[in-house]
Write a structure and sequence with these properties.
The protein is of the alpha+beta class. The chain is 36% helix and 25% strand. The structure holds (3R)-3-hydroxy-3-methyl-5-(phosphonooxy)pentanoic acid.
Length: 323
């Protein structure tokens, strides 16, 4: 019996991943850039044991069956294939952030699982190979393996599609003020969303533009240039949502308060507050500013009707094994 525990943070993408070149291997249609979220984490323990007759998953204290278990079990099969370990596993995972708040837990979940499961199976993977493995569980999980500000190079094969840090967490004190406007589970998850991205006539054009978005965003982060960062982050987010809305079926993730926040962010910026928004496959809005403005931004957000809660987070470190 071998037992290991790892932690990982979720991440927020500034340049978005939407659509796959290879659906099975999760080779993305385009590269992406993100920041890990220090305040939020998943902790996952993996035990392989010859007495187990099947894989088991316990999430926040509750046993999981069905599709959720199957996804983890398929991933464990990959770890068994790579490591030569033949035993089934028990996976116990918990998040310090409530599920169903619209914060994607799959990124931190598969990053922590990759590290704990590979180590428990007796193999030591370097950061690149761990990021490749995490990618097979959930694309954005590849970006939760390295620390700080992270770039996922799209690549064109399993071997060259992985993420790496472009700056450590302490490089830039950015704050993500996450405005929760809905706690409901989203109707169309990202797995189905990626699969229909190509049905939008805008997707090909978006993909063509991403390399230049990546360059602008990377440079803005390196130079800590908030104005340039805000412009490219919002534009890239709006492009992804334009693809979502024009795909077949059409995906509209926004709720009325989502739009109210987007418009408020524009007016705050006009009035001199350095702030911008980005939105994933859900209605909640990530409002980004330098941390000197986070309390002011949090207070402003709380005044918007429909905002249920605001969570704050700075840049987080890499996935880690814990004793
Ligand atoms: O890794 P997935 O399949 O959950 O996809 C993430 C998709 C977005 O959150 C919308 C964008 C991104 O790059 O994180």
């Amino acid at each position: 019996m071998t037992e290991l525990t790892a932690t990982a943070h979720p991440n927020i993408a500034y340049i978005k991943y939407w659509g796959n070149r290879d659906q099975e291997l999760r080779i993305p249609a385009n590269g992406s850039i993100s920041m890990n979220l220090a305040a939020l984490f998943t902790r996952t323990q993996v035990i392989f044991d010859e007495s187990f007759e099947a894989d088991q998953l316990i999430l926040n204290g509750e046993p999981v069956t069905g599709a959720g278990l199957q996804r983890v079990s398929d991933f464990l099969a990959l770890v068994r294939q790579i490591s030569g370990m033949g035993e089934f596993a028990r996976v116990e995972s918990e998040n310090n952030f409530p599920m169903g708040t619209g914060i994607a837990s799959s990124a931190s979940a598969f990053a922590a699982l990759s590290l704990a499961a590979s180590a428990a199976a007796g193999i030591t993977l370097d950061e690149k190979d761990l990021s490749r493995l995490a990618r097979c569980g959930s694309g954005s999980a590849s970006r939760s393996v390295p620390g700080g500000f992270v770039e996922w190079q799209a690549g064109d094969s399993d071997a060259n599609s992985y993420a790496y840090s472009i700056a450590p967490p302490e490089h830039w004190e950015l704050a993500d003020c996450v405005a929760i406007v809905s706690q409901e589970h989203k109707a169309t998850g990202s797995v189905e969303g990626h699969a229909i991205a190509d049905t939008s006539p805008l997707q090909a054009m978006r993909i063509e533009q991403v390399p230049s978005h990546m360059k602008s965003c990377r440079e803005a982060i390196i130079q800590r240039d908030f104005a340039a960062f805000a412009e490219i982050t919002e534009h890239d987010c709006n492009m992804m949502h334009a693809v979502m809305m024009t795909s077949n079926p059409s995906l509209i993730y926004w709720q009325p308060p989502t739009l109210a926040i987007m418009q408020a962010v524009h007016s705050w910026r006009k009035n001199g507050i350095p702030v911008c928004y980005t939105i994933d496959a859900g209605p909640n809005v990530h409002v980004i500013c330098e941390n000197s403005h986070q309390e002011q931004v949090k207070a402003l957000l709380k005044d918007i009707p429909g905002v249920l809660k605001v969570m704050l987070s700075g840049p987080g470190g890499p996935a880690l094994l814990i004793e």
